[in-house]
């Protein structure tokens, strides 16, 4: 049986990796310092949960669809470095990420492919054991990856999808609406720390972070609209 990603599991991971996470947060803060062109897309909690799930899963092959300026890319690579293993395959139609990812993180553990992922499906490794999606937030793109990409994934892998819950509910005719409907049909549970959707989850995690001296924000936004689930 595949373990769902839930709040208690995430809290345990915060406590287990608190010291390493504190170090990574310091390194990530430096990446945002002027004169950087890097724009942080992920909010703090969703970035940290991604890091923690990667530390726990210890994946060999991570796929990231949507890099933009590379904030999520650097978080993923931090986790792979700390695991001492794993390779990240990233895909985007723009190449801003290449100027922002430090060589000390990317060397030997990162492959970037520029282009529309829908035209490069064959380049996604069959061995993918962790999937991160933050690309086009349209209903048509969600239908594409549900129909074309998800069947290629092995059940039981962790999946992260960004920009689902900026409000209490996903907007109609968006990626989030299509994805949530698909998850419900499969009885596939998910976790979100979205302030709009699950404020109590965000409060609990912020309380834990304060006790672990991880409360100082890296960026101003506290939306945390990402969802996390174990693929059934």
The whole-number mean of residue pLDDT values reads 95
Tell me, briefly, the overall form: globular
Examine the coordinates and then state which fold CATH places here, giving the name of the CATH topology.
Rossmann fold
Look at the structure and give the CATH class.
Alpha Beta
Record the strand order, biggest sheet. 3-2-1-4-5-7-6
What portion of the residues fall into strands of 2 or more residues? Answer: 5-15%
In CATH, what is the homologous superfamily? Vaccinia Virus protein VP39
Into which percent range does the helicity of residues fall? 25-40%
Distance between the termini: 9 Å
Number of domains: 1
- Rg (CA only): 16 Å
Structural overview:
By secondary structure, the chain is of the alpha/beta class. It has a single domain, classed as 3-Layer(aba) Sandwich (Rossmann fold). It is 39% helix and 13% strand. The protein has 8 helices and 7 strands; from the N terminus they run αααβαβαββαβαβαβ. It has helices at residues 7-16, 18-31, 44-57, 71-83, 103-106, 139-149, 175-185, 199-211, and strands at 61-65, 87-92, 110-114, 130-133, 158-161, 191-192, 227-230. A 7-stranded mixed sheet has the order 3-2-1-4-5-7-6, covered by helices on one side. Strand 1, helix 4 and strand 2 (87-92) form a beta-alpha-beta unit. The longest helix has 14 residues, at 18-31. The chain is globular, with a radius of gyration of 16 Å. It starts with 6 loop residues before the first helix and ends with a strand.
